[in-house]
Amino acid sequence: MSKESNYYTWNVEDEVKLRDDDTKLVVYTIPQLLMNTVNNDAKSPYALRMQKDIGEAWNYMSYSDYQSNSLKVARSLIHLGLEESEGVAIIGFNHISWHLAFMGAIHAGGIGIGVYTTNAPEVNMHCLNLGNCSIIFVEDINQLKKIREIREKLNNLKAIIMFMGAPDVELDNNVNEYNWIQFIEMGDSIEIKKILEKRIMNLKANKCCSIVFTSGTTGFPKAVMLSHDNLVWTAKAFSNEVAKEINISYGNERLVSYLPLSHIAAQILDIIAPILFGSTIYFAQPSALKGTLGLTLNEVEPTLFLGVPRVYEKINEKIMEKSISNPTILRKIGRWAKRQGYKQNITHPDNIDVSLSFKIAEKVVFKKLLKALGLEKCKYIFYGAAPMSEKTMQFFLCLNIKIYGIFGMSETTGPQTVMPKSLFSPINVGIPYFGTKIRIDETNKELQIYGRNIFMGYKDNPEKTVATFTDDFYLKSGDQGALDEKGFLSIIGRIKDLIITAGGENIATGYIENNIINELPIISNVVIIGDKRKYLSSLLTFKSVVDVESMKPKNQLTAEAIDWLKSIGSRSTTVREAMIDEIVLQEIQAGVTRANLKAINKPSMVKKWAIVPRDFSLPFGELGPTMKLKKHVVYEMYDTLIENMYQ
Fold first, then answer.
1. Closest CA to 528 of 427, 604, 591, 444
2. Domain that holds residue 368
3. Which of 51, 476, 607, 626 sits 20 to 30 Å CA-CA off 100?
4. What Gene3D superfamilies does the entry give (predicted)?
């Protein structure tokens, strides 16, 4: 490894120093990692599996074929003019070709860059130019049209490859548009094979191989540069900790790939970590988050499952809808079982001292429910990417389903903590895994992190890169944290979410928002307003049914929301009806009042609130690709509603 000058950089061609750690894990490039697994191919015959539709046969690709096809992609990329350290963008749902494009780009000395399918054209243009993308993979004609729209504004575009979609789609070869079949055989020459061999030999573990874009909740996304070592070391160190908990079996673990591969959590869990253990990735249908995920889980029966909080919220809603329609006797049994589950998991989370009632509930209800969800064989169910609400966590504990919290971010190459199964807690996100360190800044409670998982820097952004590190090279996370006596981490807020009122009070909004949601089962989102204002106000949204095709919220309220409305004497069944229903408005005010009783001081109380006429969503822009709330968009979109609360 050649001489490096610093632990961070903003130049994609630079090498960085690797931080010292106690794991002594071997430094690998990603092609070296894949080669190691290929040498064990007999023990792990299946790498990637896909099916055309739910219920159909699963096609597979072995690790040996995975490598040889990645090399084919790399050669074709070189043929199309890919230079070392240029970006290769991939825009599409999870697919075998997504993996091959990513791995092929890295083998060819390029940078694998996932771009969210939900991006608007102007965001695509920002990401593609910032990533210096010369080759773009798109899944179908819809994504191709978005690129054609901005093609003339892309600085370094050399070719576009469509890896899915109908084979009869008209592509313009004159401007280097190709389908997968045309593309994959392009680099089959002795000369290009020699170039590829040389590039693989030149790869260095401390150089950038992947760019992950931040969620863009405060503006245009930043380009997080990750090295080979970031990805390999993190996957290995984190997996070692998980292996202690669940006894990972080489070649026998199954995972369902459905979270966007543009997100670092999916890149680690679906691409890098499986190579380490010869695990098999099953690709969900593109309609997974529109309702087919449950069907895939039932077919695959994964042994590991990661979800973002909104996925678990949707599962919660589905279970509630079904239970509401059950006969009275089954509903009574369900309520009894939930009481046993909650009592057991709060008083004895280690399940050492188990009551007879709990054993009956487990046999009659809990095991059947896990099987129905497709999670019966799952050894570890966990969440990340955003905080889990107390209410959602309690719901699953009632069903004896422990969902283990993990804290992480793009800049930590995904996971930063792990929660031991024997020390489960619903109120924290675990402990730093071996080889990493965390500390809390006493001045502002900011969580700071150190380890080989810490990213290289933000591409072409020296100001933000320098500002995100301390003098001793810890990462400033931007999150406020607290550590208990055992070293377990709790996230208590975001520094950027701090509101400073006109009276000079510093107020963390997350705690207030959660309190209101916990008081009112009809509420899906709470946004606190109050920066530079005399008092706090809030925007509220109601839980409504989502159109499975467009993913847009409907006027119809969810079964859970309607059930709650009935319990307070309301006959409303739609958002518009509930917004003007006096019974509902009075109950919301009562809930806000109860939440205010938990406020740490008077300035932290919500004085006024307003209901947004529809739920927040991805299509309308309030939510980002990882389902995080874009507060700056909400402020702009509902400016009039906000200002009316301060008249």
1. 604
2. 304-376+379-453+470-495
3. 626
4. N-terminal domain of ligase-like
Side-chain half-sphere of 297: how many Cα atoms within 13 Å? 24
Domain count, the chain: 3
Apex 153 CA angle, 150 and 156, nearest 5: 110
Question: Whole-angstrom Cα distance, residue 67 to residue 35?
Answer: 8
Q: 3-state SS string over 586-632?
A: HHHHHHHHHHHCCCCCHHHCEEEEEECCCCCCCCCCCECCCCCECHH
Residue ending a domain, among 462, 495, 528, is 495
Looking up residue 181, the CATH number of its domain turns out to be 3.40.50.980
pLDDT digits (tens, 9 = 90+) for 593-625: 999 999 888 888 999 999 999 999 988 989 887
Distance CA 498, CA 505 (A): 10
Residue 498 · residue 445 · CB < 8 Å: no
CA 146 to the chain's CA centroid:
24
pLDDT of residue 181: 92
Res. 3: pLDDT tops 60: no
Domain assignment present for residue 602? The answer is yes
Query: Average per-residue pLDDT in the chain?
Result: 90
Give strand pairing partners of 608: 537
- In 3D space, the residue among 442, 45, 452, 527 whose CA is nearest the CA of residue 280 turns out to be 45
Is the same domain home to 437 and 481? yes
Cα–Cα distance between 375 and 305 in angstroms, integer? Answer: 8
What do you get for the CA distance between the two ends of the chain, in Å? 63
β-strand partners of 491: 481
Stated pTM of the model: 0.86
Task: Tell me how far apart the alpha carbons of residues 425 and 418 are, in angstroms, rounded to a whole number.
Answer: 12
Fill in the DSSP letter of residue 153: G
Please state, in angstroms and rounded to a whole number, the distance separating the CA atoms of residues 610 and 643.
Answer: 11
Give yes or no for a contact between 15 and 206, defined as CB atoms under 8 angstroms apart. Answer: yes
Task: Give the pLDDT confidence of 94-148 residue by residue, as tens digits.
Answer: 999 999 999 999 999 999 999 999 888 889 999 999 999 999 999 999 999 999 9
Residues 443, 339, single domain; the answer is: yes
- Domain identity same for 508 and 436: no
pLDDT in tens, 329-372: 766 777 777 777 777 777 766 666 677 877 787 787 888 888 98
State the sign of the Cα–Cα–Cα–Cα dihedral 234, 240, 242, 246: positive
* Same domain membership, residue 485 and residue 530: no
In terms of domains, do 484 and 508 share one?
no
Compute the chain's Rg from CA coordinates.
25
Rounded to 10 degrees, what is the CA torsion of 375, 376, 382, 383? Answer: 30
Residues 485 and 507 in one domain: no
State the Cα–Cα distance between residues 41 and 60, nearest whole angstrom: 14
Q: Are 225 and 457 in contact (CB under 8 A)?
A: yes
- 354 with 344: CB under 8 angstroms? yes
- Looking at the fold, whether 270 and 356 belong to one and the same domain comes out as no
Dihedral Cα 633, 638, 640, 643, nearest 10 deg: -80
Token code pair at residue 27: 């430094």
350 and 396 fall within a common domain: yes
Asked whether the beta carbons of 507 and 604 are under 8 A apart, the reply is: yes
How many residues make up the chain in this entry?
647
Q: Under a CB-based contact definition with an 8 Å cutoff, are residues 46 and 62 in contact?
A: yes
In a domain, 297, yes or no: no
Query: Does residue 1 lie in a domain region?
Result: no
- In this structure, is residue 45 part of a structural domain? yes
CATH number at residue 631: 3.30.300.30
Tokens of 95: 């697919």
DSSP string for residues in 31-67: HHHHHHHHTTGGG---SEEE-SSTTSPPEEE-HHHHH
Distance CA 301, CA 307 (A): 15
